[in-house]
Amino acid sequence: MVTSGPGRGRRASRAGRGGRGGRTVTRGRALPYGLLAPILIFETVFVLYPIVRGFLLAFQNTSFGQTKYVGLTNFDQMVHDPFFWGSIRTTLEFTLSMVVIWLGLGLLVALLMNWNFKGRSFVRSALALPWAMPDVPTVLTFTIMLDPNFGVLNRVAAWIPGVSHDIKWLTSPTLAFIAIVIMVGWKGFPFFGLIILSSLQGIPDDLYEAARVDGAGPFQRFRAITFPSLIPTLAFLSVLAFIFSFQQFSLIYLSTGGGPGTSTSTLSVLIYNQAFQDFNYNYASAVAVVGLALALVGTLLFVIFERRVARSRMSAGSEI
Questions:
Q1: Over the stretch 194-221, which tens digit does the pLDDT of each residue have?
Q2: Residue 27: is it exposed, middle or buried by C-beta count within 10 angstroms (0-12/13-18/19+)?
Q3: 62: left (phi > 0), else alpha (psi -120 to 50), else beta?
Q4: CA dist list (Å): 266 to 24, 107, 277
């Protein structure tokens, strides 16, 4: 017996709405995965696959188009390679120098930019120019400034008693390293300065007013209020400074190519020279694996330091 009437129509209507609602919910759940799919595909093809492929090449040897597994041969060659150990030393010296210079100079500039003076907005905007400048114009500018014949830095150095005016900045091992540190430090410090400045502006003015009432001077206010408030930001920036300096390549390679000797040859420069100048891709991959391990260990140490700083501040705040 077939029933009809308004009851059946209402049930059919509810069933139709339920079906459409189910399809809508399904599409809503699938939408985030669809939006993430291009990013995941890009990361897999251009990030994950090269890392896995490079890791496999480190244990292989390619000769005359044939690839065979050689185990730890490339790593054994690395242990006995003086250029590798020279690059390790240069990388560590360069990384520590950049962390100190970027954080120190960034803190100094942030303190200066936090003052209230005429044209402060313009100066803050101009402060970001070194960070925004591309690497090639930066290298060309510093190469001209460091020229031994007409470079402006040599003209300034000539005013110092006992200093020759034709300083070979990029051909002397010690001076080349100093020149690289100056150039990379100049380009990177605005990023750290602006972040520290934003953190400075988040410190309540009431703390400074109370300190002034108690008779605290500028140095005492910095030691008791400013620096403790900036410790979490400085700890986080130390992680970024380590990562940025460890992977620095273009400024070093375009200016000195890693020379003279290994004075400016960091691991990234050594990997490039081995892969694209000596065409030793397997050995370059082995060096890259070691470099990746060192970068992960260094980053982990900085992250542990940052978390301990944050934990100590939380415990101090709870005791108060």
A1: 999 999 988 888 888 888 888 888 889 8
A2: exposed
A3: beta
A4: 55, 27, 16
Tokens 């360069």 correspond to 94
Flag the least confident range among 96-110, 145-159, 302-316.
Answer: 302-316
Residue in the block written with tokens 């005359």 = 64
Q: Checking DSSP bridges between strand 60-63 and strand 66-69, what pairing results, if any?
A: antiparallel
Report the SS3 class of residue 150. Answer: coil
Contact 86, 262 (CB under 8 A): yes
Alpha-helical segments (H) within 214-280: 218-221, 227-246, 250-255, 267-276
223: tokens are: 């030691």
The string of pLDDT tens digits covering residues 239-280 is 899 989 998 999 999 999 888 888 899 999 999 999 998 889
Both structure tokens of 21: 């609602």
Helix (H, G, I), strand (E, B) or coil at 241: helix
The dihedral built from the CA positions of residue 130, 120, 241 and 96, taken in this order, carries a sign that is positive
What gap in Å lies between CA 33 and CA 39, rounded to an integer?
A: 10
Range 69-91 average pLDDT: 91
| pTM score of the predicted model | 0.82
